[in-house]
Design a protein that fits this description.
The protein contains nine helices and nine strands. By secondary structure, the chain is of the alpha/beta class. The strands form two sheets. A seven-stranded mixed beta sheet has the order 5-4-1-6-8-7-9, with helices on both faces. It has a two-stranded antiparallel ribbon with strand order 2-3. β2 and β3 (42-43) form a beta hairpin.
């Protein structure tokens, strides 16, 4: 009898799953329903989702919203846009993001707030690649601390690290700001911060959506690039260096993050 050669079986290394989690809710105290303000017939949240769908190294997008009735429309929009959605506590944002990651079995979280409708998908890609290459050496990485315009940054960390951090929360503000406990414990959690190239550095510029005047500026930017919807951070900076009067539109808006004690 000829013995059949046994097929060798190899244990496949399980690929780690990274996903983007967007925090979004409707009843913002400063600008209610801001995610549904429209430019070029698309809501601010749709503009953000469109851009994040072009991030090639993170295929899972999750909107983490609240269980409030007012956020039913965010749930409906997520379903229409074919992205995943998780509903949790309004005040315990950290717990909401953690449970969203656990439900959809994410190993790594790229966290982005819904206030960043024109975030640069290529900068998100770059940060994800940098984190994944160094994930055995660092617990947390951000590109929003050292010069990028406000509204262009994101942060990445593992679900395991967030879970560990969540168990050690002692201050109320750490439930509101997802990674605050991580950032306050640099000895326990190894952290890295990306320094942007000079051409992308503009700390004073805000292209985030906090108040009505922010929307007025974002509307001008998005409309300007209607023939190039995937405009970049560099495109925005070049535009606003030419349109200096536009900078006055939201120059008086006070940012909450400027008052957070890390």
């Amino acid at each position: 009898k000829i013995k059949k050669k046994k097929k060798k079986t190899f244990l496949k290394k399980k690929k780690k799953k990274i996903g983007i989690i967007i925090e979004a809710r409707s009843n913002s105290s400063r600008l209610s329903n801001k995610h549904f303000l429209k430019v070029l017939n698309k809501t601010m949240l749709e503009h953000l989702i469109f851009r994040l769908k072009n991030v090639s190294n993170a295929k899972t997008i999750i909107i983490a919203t609240t269980t409030n009735k007012v956020d039913d429309k965010i749930y409906t929009l997520a379903k229409k846009e074919k992205v995943k959605v998780f509903r949790g506590s309004e005040d315990n944002v950290t717990g909401r993001v953690l449970k969203a990651a656990q439900k959809f079995k994410l190993n790594f979280i790229c966290e982005i707030t819904g206030d960043c409708p024109i975030i640069d998908p290529f900068l998100v890609e770059q940060l994800i690649d940098t984190y994944l290459i160094n994930s055995d050496k660092i617990d947390y990485i951000s590109n929003s601390q050292l010069g990028l315009p406000n509204g262009m940054g994101c942060q990445i960390f593992s679900t395991k690290v967030l879970s560990d951090s969540y168990k050690n929360i002692k201050n109320k503000d750490e439930y509101e700001h997802v990674t605050l406990n991580i950032k306050r414990n640099p000895i326990k959690y190894k952290q890295a911060y990306l320094l942007p190239p000079k051409r992308l550095s503009w700390t004073e510029l805000a292209v985030t959506l906090d108040e009505k005047n922010d929307f007025l500026l974002l509307k001008k930017i998005i409309t300007n690039f209607k023939k190039k919807p995937l405009f970049t951070c560099e495109d925005v900076i070049k535009l606003l260096k030419k349109k200096k009067l536009w900078l006055k539109i939201n120059s008086q808006v006070k940012r909450k993050q400027n008052f957070i004690n890390i």
